[in-house]
Design goal:
Spore Coat Polysaccharide Biosynthesis Protein SpsA, Chain A, two-stranded antiparallel sheet, globular, alpha/beta, 9-stranded mixed β-sheet
């Protein structure tokens, strides 16, 4: 599949409760969202979907493309879906595959993005994601999720508790691939009790019968969810 048949969209909002304004947090002289966009755009045509003019301005000044979306989007999947709708209304031919890359992963690896794209090129790849081997302490933050999967990559469950994993504990890496035509269906699904309990959107998709496959990656970037995470990433970038 040629590169133009797949896009990446980075949803970004300013309203984080634990770290307000984090997309614009300075890391090594650049806003965090710019670091993410630069890394992702090495692999695919990349858009940033945001509800904030300041984020859009940063991306456009860096030479990227930003789509202004509603403040009412409940999650990144809704924001990605709305951005695609806007692009279609502008006359863009939508690709068959869309990757949703988190805007708070300034150390995201282009290699991992390629791994996710390759997973989505498989015939059964309707929804894809990534996992990495869980390490001691991964469950302590309360923000990580874990996946139980079969050797062929099909995920049977996701949980905040690594005990969900029958054989090996896999930490979920929060990026997704979708066959584009599925997104309107996914955002229209009603919430489920399991999703609400786990606070994980992908549980809703499993509960409604959608298959999710995961590719394994050796290491994963650090999601910035707190001031402590931000300082850790700043230190890592200062050393590189």
């Amino acid at each position: 599949m040629p590169p133009h048949k797949a896009w990446a969209i980075i949803p970004a909002r300013m309203g984080s409760t634990r770290l307000p304004g984090k997309p614009l947090a300075d890391i090594a002289g650049k806003p965090m969202i710019q670091h993410v966009w630069e890394r992702v755009s090495e692999v695919l045509p990349t858009f940033v979907a945001t509800d904030d003019e300041r984020i859009a301005q940063v991306i456009e000044q860096a030479g990227g493309m930003a789509i202004l979306t509603s403040e009412n989007c409940q999650n990144g999947t809704q924001r990605v879906t709305e951005a695609l709708h806007i692009l279609a209304e502008q006359g863009q031919n939508l690709p068959g595959i869309v990757l949703n890359i988190q805007g708070d992963e300034p150390l995201v690896s282009p290699h991992d993005i390629v791994s996710l794209l390759n997973l989505m090129l498989r015939e059964e790849g309707q929804i894809g994601t990534l996992v990495t081997s869980a390490k001691p302490g991964d469950a302590e933050s309360g923000t990580n999720a874990f996946a139980d999967k079969t050797p062929d990559g099909r995920c049977h469950s996701f949980s905040r508790n690594p005990a969900c994993c029958a054989i090996q504990a896999w930490r979920h890496v929060g990026m997704y691939g979708f066959k584009t035509h599925l997104l309107p269906e996914l955002v229209a699904l009603p919430s489920t009790e399991n999703e609400i309990r786990e606070r994980l959107e992908q549980v809703r998709w499993l509960d409604h019968g959608y298959a999710i496959y995961a590719a394994e990656v050796k290491a994963a970037g650090i999601g910035v969810d707190s001031p402590e995470d931000l300082e850790k990433v700043r230190g890592m970038m200062a050393e590189s």
